[in-house]
Design goal:
The chain is mainly α. It has one domain. 52% of the residues lie in helices and 5% in strands. It has a three-stranded antiparallel sheet with strand order 1-2-3. β2 and β3 form a beta hairpin. α1 packs antiparallel against α2 and α2 runs antiparallel to α3. The longest helix is centred in the middle third of the chain and has 21 residues. The termini are far apart. 35% of the residues are buried.
Length: 146
């Protein structure tokens, strides 16, 4: 059940963050940030996290996917695994000049890097380690030689 709860909680959080990114009063202008080809809605959400309209739409889509993934254990586990891989790649990309703006489309630099890495770690736990009952997998018992 914990894996399904992860999917719905992550989905709700991503949906809300994506929607908040569309609220101009919650963003500060990008004065020293790299230029983007898609600068519509470009700014720092809560003064910390770089976003633009495409970034917000990606979060909304991931949020809807997470909410939908709550329906079954298999869907929730796949969502967690996909989120882990996607966000691990994004965290690394955020460290590389040029890729830190996904070639000028979506900003993924600054505070987004550590947030993406943390998201990847949490999602990886729910995707590969957590048991459906919410308990960690038992440690394998030592084998006896006969």
């Amino acid at each position: 059940m914990a894996i399904r709860y992860f999917a719905i909680v992550a989905g709700i959080v991503y949906l809300l963050v994506g929607l908040l990114g569309f609220v101009p009063d919650l963003k500060t202008p990008p004065t020293t940030a790299p230029p983007l080809a898609v600068d519509t809605g470009y700014g720092f959400l809560l003064g910390l996290f770089p976003v633009n309209v495409l970034h917000n739409l990606v979060h909304v889509a991931l949020g809807i996917w997470g909410i939908a993934a709550f329906a079954t254990l298999g869907a929730a586990r796949f969502y967690a695994r996909a989120l882990a891989v996607i966000y691990a790649v994004l965290a690394v990309m955020g460290l590389i000049p040029g890729l830190d703006t996904t070639l000028g489309l979506i900003p993924i630099f600054g505070h987004d890097i550590w947030l993406h890495a943390l998201t990847a770690l949490i999602a990886a736990y729910f995707g590969w380690v957590a048991e459906p009952s919410g308990r960690p997998a038992p440690a394998p018992s030592p084998r006896r030689l006969s």
